[in-house]
Amino acid sequence: MEKPKVVLGVSGGIAAYKACELLRRLTESGHDVRVVPTDASLNFVGAATWSALSGNPVSTEVWESVHEVPHVRIGQGADLVVVAPATADLLAKAAHGLADDLLTNTLLTARCPVVFAPAMHTEMWEHPATQENVATLRRRGAVVIEPAVGRLTGVDTGKGRLPDPGEIFEVCRRVLTRGPAAPDLAGRHVVISAGGTREPLDPVRYLGNRSSGKQGYALARTAVARGARVTLVEANTGLPDPAGADVVRAGTAVQLREAVLKAAADADVVVMAAAVADFRPAAYATGKIKKKDGQEPAPITLVRNPDILAEVAADRAREGQIVVGFAAETDDVLANGREKLRRKGCDLLVVNEVGERRTFGSEENEAVVLGADGGETPVPYGPKEALADTVWDLVAARFG
Ligand code: CTP
């Protein structure tokens, strides 16, 4: 089988060095990569590096190998174009259709999905000119990954970092898998909770659960690849931040509720994939609870936590907001699931069949997605991202 053809565009920012790692991931996973750097980017990483790592020729100009018409051929033949890093200048040129070098020509001739991974200083990212250019590119069907927050060049920190190359690779992989289908969640804000809450007893102990957060992260990654703006509210997962998602950290059920309700205020979809503790200790000991010789431990009194899913569903922050819940059932899966869907008042409920094959921590999942409209979509045992894509298919269908 022919290898999928990827064009890796590199524009002139210091994060160009991170694109070497992205290139390595792409080639090692069986993609034929053609690197198209801008002239300015060669100040950061030279053509010899790109050529050696990709095994393909490298040029920045339309005037080299003119008989091969590279300014048209490279874009036409690509299955995916990814620009990482994309500078403010490159985004502006792409949004306005300028074509003064090989990369911008390639962007105009490509008919395949295009992913931009911007990286720049916070001021440049937040400038209305850049934001309008990004909005234009997204409206036209490109996936523009939100930059990460963190250390920038020099002493500055803020939004504008190139996300981890491994995570950009994940976005590319998913966009390639989807093929030429338009990003159907473009312009939508989705809020996803993931992980498991921990309810503290004292400064060193908590009541927790074994949720890994992997299903919620798969939902976040697939939503980014489908063009959504993603807020991921995570509880105790320890997983790397997915590229393009705004990650909010929460520890307890009460903190998770606060973060979800805040993000839900302008959300089109809320997906509660987190395992929220139903109970928390009634009292928190500010000092470590000590054992006492000859004495039985004092019983722990629990109180109910708020049901976030039921609250979000009952009190929708926006008309038409879609609310999705998760449930784990061992017996009478469908009947129990239906009853839970009704009780929680959500639009979709993903019912995991737990039993012999454990779901916690594994890479795979098996489920039935129930709809408030009576729909029933079985998802066979398989990767968590396949289940995530089924959820987004059902959500996108409800947007009409
Ligand atoms: N949920 C929530 N707030 C809680 C508890 C759960 O928002 N305090 C959400 C979870 O994120 C999940 C769904 O509700 O989407 C799970 O519902 P739950 O009633 O806890 O069901 P199960 O986990 O299946 O457990 P059980 O029926 O045994 O209570």
Short description:
This protein is 34% helix and 25% strand. By secondary structure, the chain is an alpha/beta fold. Strand 18 (364-371) and strand 19 form a beta hairpin.
Overview of this structure, please?
With 400 residues, this protein is of the alpha/beta class. The protein has two domains: 5-178, Rossmann fold (3-Layer(aba) Sandwich); 189-398, Rossmann fold, CATH 3.40.50.10300. The chain is built from 13 helices and 19 strands. It has helices spanning 16-28, 47-54, 70-76, 88-96, 102-109, 122-126, 128-139, 165-178, 214-225, 253-264, 308-314, 333-344, 384-399, and strands spanning 5-10, 32-37, 80-86, 114-118, 143-144, 148-151, 157-161, 189-195, 199-202, 205-207, 229-235, 245-249, 269-272, 279-281, 302-304, 322-329, 348-353, 364-371, 376-383. Strands 12-11-8-13-16-17-18-19 form an eight-stranded mixed sheet, sandwiched between helices. Strand 18 (364-371) and strand 19 (376-383) form a beta hairpin. Helix 1 (16-28) packs parallel to helix 2 (47-54), helix 4 (88-96) packs across helix 7 and helix 8 packs across helix 9. It starts with a strand and ends with a helix. The structure holds cytidine-5'-triphosphate. Cytidine-5'-triphosphate binds next to helix 11 and strand 16. Residues 190-400 are annotated as: Phosphopantothenate--cysteine ligase. Residues 1-189 are annotated as: Phosphopantothenoylcysteine decarboxylase. Residues 185-396 form the DNA/pantothenate metabolism flavoprotein C-terminal domain. One of its GO terms (biological process) is coenzyme A biosynthetic process.
